[in-house]
Amino acid sequence: MTTETAHTMDNTGSRFGMWVFLFTEIMLFGGLFVLFAAYFNEYQTEFISGGKELDVIFGAANTLILLTSSFTVAASITAIRKNEVKHALALLWATIGLGALFLVNKYFEWGHKFEHGIYPNSDKLNSGPVGENIFFGLYYIITGLHGLHIVIGLGALITAVILMKREKVTAEHYVFLENSGLYWHLVDLIWIFLFPLFYLVL
Questions:
Q1: How far apart are CA 13 and CA 20, in angstroms?
Q2: Which residues of 92-108 are buried (b: 16+ CB within 10 A; e: fewer)?
Q3: Three-state SS string across the chain, please?
Q4: Is the per-residue pLDDT at 1 higher than 60?
Q5: CA–CA dist 83, 89 (Å, integer)
Q6: Hey, which of 72, 92, 118, 160 would disulfide with 113, CB 3.0 to 4.6 Å?
Q7: How many Cα atoms within 13 Å fall on the side-chain side of residue 83?
Q8: Is the overall model pTM greater than 0.85, yes or no?
Q9: In the prediction, which pLDDT does 120 show?
Q10: Phi-psi bin for 170: left (phi > 0), alpha (psi -120 to 50), beta?
Q11: What is the dihedral of CA 30, 31, 34, 39, to 10 degrees?
């Protein structure tokens, strides 16, 4: 077996492993979406009321941020394949910056809710309708889990930057960056479902 053949097989295995991992992530969030739908069916009025408490502007801004970051990470993969290292690095840093901006927005959004007593087991929610308490419980669990995935994705992208600077990620060996980009796209896709699910619930 030649070195090139072994490298090709290794890349194929890495890509396959990433797709399997992404499938498990889809199953995780898919289960949470089903749970949301089941409770929504039982507490429709309270869920709609809870959704009106969320700031659509924050949600829309974060949607735009992540959609833009999907473009920049995809463009960075294209750039490295063309051996445009500086361009690829700049696009990766832009993606990382956008991801960090998403987390900052989410921090302020959560902080605003906490100031108004809207958080798990708060007196305001415990004394209110059960359905609304469940809505915000799901909101914090699912968006918090998504935020954790954003942090993991940022870690992968920062690692890709380091590997690129060390010439471990190159025009010939870019699978790590490609897999990191796939993970980032999944995180963005999940948010596209979360935004209408919570912020535009009708």
A1: 11
A2: bebbbebbebbeebbee
A3: CCHHHHHHHHHHHHHHHHHHHHHHHHHHHHHHHHHHHHHHHHCHHHHHHHHCCCCHHHHHHHHHHHHHHHHHHHHHHHHHHCCCHHHHHHHHHHHHHHHHHHHHHHHHHHHHHHHCCCCCCCHHHHCCCHHHHHHHHHHHHHHHHHHHHHHHHHHHHHHHHHHHHCCCCCCCCCHHHHHHHHHHHHHHHHHHHHHHHHHCCC
A4: no
A5: 11
A6: 118
A7: 1
A8: yes
A9: 81
A10: beta
A11: -140
C-alpha 6/C-alpha 173 separation (Å) is 13
Q: pLDDT tens for residues 95-140?
A: 999 999 999 999 999 999 999 899 888 888 888 899 999 999 999 9
- Determine the Cα–Cα distance for residues 18 and 27; give it in Å rounded to an integer: 14
Whether 26 and 149 have beta carbons less than 8 Å apart is answered as no
| Residue whose token pair is 């396959």 | 16
Half-sphere exposure of 43 (CA within 13 A, CB side): 18
pLDDT of residue 202: 63
User: Around Cβ 1, how many Cβ atoms within 10 Å?
Assistant: 6
Residue 19 clears pLDDT 90, i.e. is over it? no
* Residue 54, phi then psi, degrees to nearest 5: -85, 150
Q: What is the mean pLDDT of the chain?
A: 91
CATH class of 3-199: mainly alpha
